UniProtKB/TrEMBL annotation:
<comment type="function">
    <text>Catalyzes the conversion of 4-hydroxy-tetrahydrodipicolinate (HTPA) to tetrahydrodipicolinate.</text>
</comment>
<keyword id="KW-0560">Oxidoreductase</keyword>
<feature type="binding site">
    <location>
        <begin position="101"/>
        <end position="103"/>
    </location>
    <ligand>
        <name>NAD(+)</name>
    </ligand>
</feature>
<keyword id="KW-0520">NAD</keyword>
<comment type="similarity">
    <text>Belongs to the DapB family.</text>
</comment>
<keyword id="KW-0028">Amino-acid biosynthesis</keyword>
<feature type="binding site">
    <location>
        <begin position="11"/>
        <end position="16"/>
    </location>
    <ligand>
        <name>NAD(+)</name>
    </ligand>
</feature>
<protein>
    <recommendedName>
        <fullName>4-hydroxy-tetrahydrodipicolinate reductase</fullName>
        <ecNumber>1.17.1.8</ecNumber>
    </recommendedName>
</protein>
<keyword id="KW-0963">Cytoplasm</keyword>
<feature type="domain" description="Dihydrodipicolinate reductase C-terminal">
    <location>
        <begin position="131"/>
        <end position="267"/>
    </location>
</feature>
<comment type="pathway">
    <text>Amino-acid biosynthesis; L-lysine biosynthesis via DAP pathway; (S)-tetrahydrodipicolinate from L-aspartate: step 4/4.</text>
</comment>
<dbReference type="Pfam" id="PF05173">
    <property type="entry name" value="DapB_C"/>
</dbReference>
<dbReference type="InterPro" id="IPR022663">
    <property type="entry name" value="DapB_C"/>
</dbReference>
<dbReference type="InterPro" id="IPR036291">
    <property type="entry name" value="NAD(P)-bd_dom_sf"/>
</dbReference>
<dbReference type="GO" id="GO:0008839">
    <property type="term" value="F:4-hydroxy-tetrahydrodipicolinate reductase"/>
</dbReference>
<keyword id="KW-0521">NADP</keyword>
<feature type="active site" description="Proton donor/acceptor">
    <location>
        <position position="158"/>
    </location>
</feature>
Length: 272
């Protein structure tokens, strides 16, 4: 029997951290070997299970990245951009694959990730769910098929604690639409409208962000023309879809060459 993959989870006290812990500990293909939190967090030094209010797990929560990564195969990371850069550099030094679900990373921050070399194996995606990545592919295809008579709007909704906007998934969808149109997203992106903005510019891709309650994640891509609208939609009702996707990505890294990958690679859709 193949030995279960050893996985470290960062930010274990957060919503996604807890969900990842639950997903990994119920998997026959993976085992939790480390738990990381920021320095000074109340959970540091505690058994993770007890810190979460359940039975001991035998995994202590730590803020020592290098020590925690020793002997691990993969680290799964849904934290914040600055923290993710540090985790990526530590993972590369330790020869550990890094699955990144962190959103809100700027181009400059992404550029600070270790380059694809003999040491760095990174899977990074703005959204880890199968459905969303299929939606990305559909968005690209529809945008390629329709001309600029169809205005493109990306509308996303999330819970009231989300700190970045547009969401990483919305930007993935905008990028897919731009690629389908053969343009650069930064040249045609409308991120905010307020006051007297003037008429909508032909060919631009608009974004709208909704924040409220406990919405897990909803994304619409609207293609609107005179007389008709096409709406592509994905609704996530349970955060576990992201944890399952991240675990799938982690398991996929086994035996893979160093490099930078995304969920389309994991799902075998990158060449479609």
């Amino acid at each position: 029997m193949t030995k279960p993959m050893g996985i470290v989870v960062t930010g274990v006290s957060g919503r996604m951290g807890r969900m990842l812990v639950e997903t990994i500990t119920t998997s026959e293909k993976a085992r939790l070997v480390g738990a990381l939190e920021r320095a000074g967090h109340a959970w540091i030094g505690q058994d993770l299970g007890q810190a979460m209010g359940s039975a001991p797990m035998g995994v202590m929560v730590s803020d020592d990245i290098a020590q925690t990564l020793e002997g691990a195969d993969v680290v799964i990371d849904f934290t914040a951009p600055t923290a993710t850069i540090g985790f990526a550099q530590a993972a590369a030094r330790a020869g550990v694959a890094h699955v990144i679900g962190t959103t809100g990373m700027s181009g400059a921050e992404i550029a600070q990730l270790p380059p694809p070399s003999r040491d760095a194996l990174i899977v990074r995606a703005g959204n880890m769910s199968l459905g969303v990545n299929l939606l990305v592919q559909l968005t690209k295809q529809v945008a390629a098929a329709l001309d600029e008579d169809y205005d493109i709007e990306v509308i996303e909704a999330h819970h009231n604690q989300k700190v970045d906007a547009p969401s990483g998934t919305a930007l993935m969808l905008g990028e897919a639409a731009a690629q389908g149109r053969g343009v650069m997203l930064e040249d045609v992106s409308d991120r905010a409208r307020d006051g007297i903005t003037g008429a909508r510019q032909r060919g631009h891709i608009g974004f709208a962000a909704i924040r409220g309650g406990d919405i897990v994640g909803e994304h619409d891509v609207l293609f609107a023309a005179t007389g008709e609208r096409i709406i592509l939609r994905h609704v996530a009702s349970d955060r576990s879809v992201f944890a399952r996707g991240a675990l799938k990505a982690a398991l996929w890294t086994a035996g893979k060459a160093p490099g930078h990958y995304d969920m389309l690679d994991v799902l075998g859709l990158s060449e479609q």
